[in-house]
Amino acid sequence: MTTYRITHRTAYTYADAVSTSFGRAHLLPRTQPDQHCSAAELTLDPSPDDLREHTDAFGNRSTYFCVREPHHELTVLARSTVTVDRVVVPPALRPWEEVRDTAPVEVRPYRLPSPRLPVQPEVAAYAAPSFPAGRPLGEAAADLCRRIHADFDYVSGSTTVRSTVTDLLTGGAGVCQDFAHLAVAGLRSRGIPTRYVSGYLETLPPPGKPKLRGADASHAWFSVWTGDTWLDLDPTNDRVVDERFVVLAHGRDYGDVPPLKGVIFTDSAESVMTVSVDMERVDPG
Prior knowledge:
The protein is of the alpha+beta class. It has 5 helices and 14 strands.
């Protein structure tokens, strides 16, 4: 069991004044069987004229805000305390075809195409070698995770939030969002319900070195239905998701759960965004 105090700061700076900002945030962690969010708040500077939280269609905490005070800078600060008590799920031994054919109604939407992950023959072709007939689903999903990790380079800035799985397949490089998207789309191409997951991964400093403030990061991975439960795997690091991961939200793809999105009214042609994330372990004593 591990408890984290998480601070996620996003700052926007505009070249000209913004008269109004409307936004939607997925920055407050979920409470679910393997993690408990005991405290969470979202604050803005300037102060919002409207700030409301609701639960979205996927069970995530979603926050709407509106700032009508003219501003050249906008800071969104999320603070939360989360306890993770995650037991690593044993490999799913059921054949992937059996899991596909017996998926219950409530998870079937996660095997359908989604706005950012349409049906693509090249994705199905890439995933196919991991799914020979009769292979246990856990083994097949882990193999796909391993192949993505081995086949593609992690290069910060090589893609954007608008990049597609095709961009990754042709360019050979991407970031965690791209790797998670490829895994989700690949598993869905075999009819397996799979979710896109956004959250945080605690980073560990080199031996003997202090942990740097702001060195942690937003992260993304995938969660596959095994027939009994969900198995979370991280293709960026080729590992099973454990207590170093904190779940913010999950959906069909990134478009359902971006940390922040919105609309601004301004004549400004330029803006700069900076993001800082800190995950501090809380001493249980």
